[in-house]
Amino acid sequence: MTTRTHEPDIVVVGSANVDLVVPVDRLPAPGQTVLGRDHLRVAGGKGANQAVAAARLGCRVAMIGRVGDDDHGRQLLASLDEAGVDRSLVRLTPQTPSGIALITVDDAGENTIAVSPGANARLTAADVTDGAAVLRGAAVTLVQLEIDQEAVAAAVELAGGIVVLNPAPATVLADRVLRGVDVLVPNRSELAKLAGVAEPGDLAGSLAAARRLPGDAAVVVTLGSEGALVIDGDHVVHVPALEVDAVDATGAGDAFCGALADGLARGLTLERAVRWAVEVAGRSTTGWGAQPAMPTREQVRASRSGAPGSDPFVAARCVYVDAMNVIGSRPDGWWRDRDGAVRRLASRLTSFAAAREVEVMLVIDGRPVPGLPEGPAGGVHVHYATRSGRDAADDRIVELLGVADDVRGVAASTLVVTADRELGRRARALGARVVGPRHLLGLLERLPEVPG
Fold first, then answer.
1. Does the domain made of 10-303 have the CATH classification 3.40.1190.20?
2. What's the pLDDT tens digit per position in 27-39?
């Protein structure tokens, strides 16, 4: 049995099922039988999937749940162990089958799912209360609705950190539960059920439905191949999905929730955490099965490059951008409006920082740009430097990451974007990598500007 050696970053309270997956050419209509290909038997269940997703990304994760004392239950526990999930609060339930999910998946990656809860239905509020200490200490508590609502309510009430609720499968929730949630993550059909409206067909409809919900929770509506809609008070943003070669979307929603919890536990803003979650969810659809397809952090980052070594930004934790050098490298005369050009560059770098989960240091020579104050904002640290002060600016490659006693260790994960030969020489001498502005500009052209 897994034993607890440290407090978790994330506690998942939810279900664990064995998924029986049948690939088919097309999903069956009501009353229709279709022949499929060889079936798969893999560990699943929304709670276990989300726990494994977050653990694969490097978070410390504990799970509260129940499985049957049967072969399926032992498979589920082994899968949690393999992912590094603390399952000391996952109970064996005698004389009760483990939950199973019967899943058909078509060639486009779409699926239908029927669930027999089994031991999951025996998870009680008392079981959750036994985990009160870890719930109070976790940065994020992640809950779904494949378990009894009293267990859900107990988890929400006992949580000491951010409460994320994935209301799946859709059901009407008590106001006391919704009012204790910080981030609600429904898909469109679940949102419609909670709001008591018809399923929205567009972003405006999703926004209107979210505004009808009780409580002050931020709402993140998952939109499948369209990405996600973030509604956090007056802040509303649509995060588009990535283009991937999807084969099985069975665990995509759970990958999204696990990655969202991972981002929030690491201190990302909600929007940045959602951008990360959209990327992880997209990557999860490129493999078969729910848990087997959950990617690691390294796999997500590697997939950004398309081919090994083709993207110099993949391994970077910090990107140091010589603003005037980058602007001057554009062929379309951006540099003629210096202030406007710097603002546009900073805006696109904000999208870049969120999409790549990196810190960006934007160094600007000369006078300050109106509306662009010095300091951190949205993952971009703005620094104004005179030529005589350039040495201090260069030193902030290290200062930015807060580990000035390890210059070479930091420099190895720092990428300097400049065409300035002297700055490039000095950066390489520290051990940093250096690329010309055109490498960055090609990536920024595909990203949106973020309104200031």
1. yes
2. 999 999 999 988 8
